[in-house]
Amino acid sequence: MDTYRRAAVPPQKLYIGGTWQEAQGGTLDVVSPIDGQKLTTIESASAADVDRAVAAARAAFEDGRWSRMAPAARKKVLHRIADIIEREALALTVLGVRDNGTEIGMALKAEAGSAAGTFRYYAEAIDKVYGEIAPTAPDVLGLVHREAVGVVGAIVPWNFPLMIGAWKLAPALAAGNSVVLKPAETASLSLLRLAEICAEAGLPDGVLNVVTGEGRVTGESLALSMDVDVLVFTGSGATGRRLLEYSARSNLKRVYLELGGKSPNVVFADAPDLDQAAKVSAMGIFRNSGQVCVAGSRLLVERSIHDDFVALMAKHAKALKVGDPLDLSSQIGAVNSDTQLQGNLGFVADAVKEGGEIALGGSRILESSGGYYMEPTIVTGVRPDHQLAQREVFGPVLAVTPFETEEEAVQIANGTDYGLAAGVWTGNLSRAHRMIRDIRAGVVHVNTYGGADNTVPLGGVKQSGNGHDKSLHALDKYTDLKTAWIQL
Ligand code: NAD
């Protein structure tokens, strides 16, 4: 690992049409959150650069070099991508961690490991998803074809870039599309390397293009493009809102949004093992410094066990070692950027002004390293209308609110604009099912928090987004339906 950690990272370029190109828009510095030092530079793609990438994707799609390749051949390429990711898992993951600060133990599984699994899942789907024959009158034949949409624009965030990148790329490519991928400014490196891996695996030039740069320039140009057919996005609600506007102002491209959350983790006094619930719940909010879309950032706890449960959470949270994300003993790594860290601290200060009490943490730590680290932080006395209960922090900050009854728990759980994830801890099976039914969220975890795999979809309701990543349902985003109506 030390070799990869010390390896110089050369200045990065844009990947367009199978070649590395300079941007007309200049470069951006990449600063490592581990020590606050400059790691390398990425190109800042201008509108003209993005147009070149979209044109390359369109040309590749239209000439059929990938879109009309036999499904079995496409499947082999996706499997080879997974093979290379697995072979290079450590190098790829360390590169990503130097860029975005996620603790290596988690990143190995959630980044390279997960990305390889996702490419394999959709590789296998390629020759197992069929069209339909409609039950029409006997003198006609109604065929429902599933076609690739054409050029997919994918804009992804800085947390788990490989995992989320693969959630978009693998089904888009499996369906035969070409893609222009725009990584986040603070997590581009592993996705640029992934582009090389795809080429090594035999993905034809132009099918995957990667444009780096600022959201308001590079991302906006991609979203405004008249030649992008579908835009898939993971990131904040504010950006998601803009993307819908850009679509309306350009070609009405379909826009799929995976946005933020303020996910409630509801603990009833009848939970089977409160200590275990506290341990898992602590990881459910604090892993990756809380920079997880489904993080259980609101703890709703039955009043009769409130003080005991908060004490258990504090015990487990305190035991988590925060530090250098490339040290295997660190259970929590760095916050992604100084901006993000300052935002987290601001949320805590505001919560205290609103009447919240800090039960644990609250501060920046390890400042002498030059990096961005924050203690796991628990704030009690947070009322449902407080900012900390309503707004996503995307940092290691837990808001605790007591409740009296199941009805009140549901009401508080549903009392935000978000609906991404939830947790319920109870030993009562009927109550568990009632909570699954009543909580408005894309996923409800019962007696655990945060598990998932490729077989189940991930997506939000309300202002947490639309559309789903993962599972066979994700293919719907990357395909159009076409009917053939044939008189017999
Ligand atoms: P962000 O919205 O700031 O940025 C996401 C991406 O959008 C980046 O690539 C950025 O450059 C780009 N972007 C920014 N402004 C843009 C614009 N005007 N036009 C086009 N592109 C633009 O989000 P972030 O801070 O990178 O990520 C954190 C957010 O992502 C959190 O809200 C988190 O909950 C959410 N998230 C959601 C999921 C999910 O599956 N629902 C998963 C991970 C993260």
Automatic annotation (TrEMBL):
Q: Which Pfam families match?
A: Aldedh
Residue spans making up a coiled coil are: none
Please list the residue ranges annotated as the Aldehyde dehydrogenase domain: 20-483
A Gene Ontology molecular function term for this protein is: aldehyde dehydrogenase [NAD(P)+] activity
**InterPro entries given for it?**
Ald_DH/histidinol_DH (IPR016161), Ald_DH_C (IPR016163), Ald_DH_CS_CYS (IPR016160), Ald_DH_CS_GLU (IPR029510), Ald_DH_N (IPR016162), Aldehyde_DH_dom (IPR015590)
The answer, when asked if ATP-binding is one of the entry's keywords, is no
Query: What is annotated as the active site?
Result: 258
Gene3D superfamilies membership:
Aldehyde Dehydrogenase, Chain A, domain 1 (3.40.605.10), Aldehyde Dehydrogenase, Chain A, domain 2 (3.40.309.10)
Q: Which keywords does this Swiss-Prot/TrEMBL entry list?
A: Oxidoreductase
To which protein family does this belong?
Answer: Belongs to the aldehyde dehydrogenase family.
This chain's protein is named Aldehyde dehydrogenase family protein
Q: State the organism of origin.
A: Thalassovita mangrovi
Lineage at the top is: Bacteria, Pseudomonadati, Pseudomonadota, Alphaproteobacteria, Rhodobacterales
